[in-house]
Amino acid sequence: MGTLITKPVIINGSSITVNAAVVGAMRVRLLDKNGEPIKDFDWVNISGDAVDHPVEWNQDLKTLNQKPVQMEFQLQDALLYSFDLKN
Predict the structure, then answer these.
(1) Which is nearest to 18 in space by CA: 52, 49, 60, 44?
(2) Who contacts 18 (Cβ-Cβ below 8 Å, separation ≥6)?
(3) What integer pLDDT is reported at residue 87 of this predicted model?
(4) How confident is the model at residue 30 (pLDDT cuts 50, 70, 90)?
(5) Minimal CA–CA distance to 54: which of 11, 17, 13?
(6) Rg for the chain (alpha carbons), in Å?
(7) Taking 90 as the threshold, does the pLDDT of residue 44 lie above it?
(8) DSSP strand E in 9-67: where?
(9) Domain residues of the chain, as ranges?
């Protein structure tokens, strides 16, 4: 399984979507600027092939607005093309 961790980005939105083609497995979670997992933003599984897989956590993403976060992706037999922050 491969791992990709983004550079810190400032969250300014209410949702995240992922453009990916997943045959095997893919999951994503949010980390703080120091690389530590953020409570309530743990792993979300993504499956299938879509340009806008919704990524939904139990906590509202808006609680992280204006804060730097990193996204950690784990992939196996999957292609990650992009992710998007939406208002």
Answers:
(1) 52
(2) 26, 28, 46, 52, 53, 55, 80, 82, 83, 84
(3) 82
(4) very high
(5) 17
(6) 12
(7) yes
(8) 9-10, 15-32, 44-55
(9) 2-86
Architecture of domain 2-86: Sandwich (2.60)
**CA–CA gap between residue 30 and residue 24 (Å, rounded):** 21
Provide the 10 A C-beta neighbour count for residue 69: 18
Token digits of residue 6? 């983004």
Nearest CA to 68 out of 19, 6, 3 is that of: 6
Pairwise pLDDT comparison (40 vs 87), residue with the higher score: 40
pTM of model > 0.85: yes
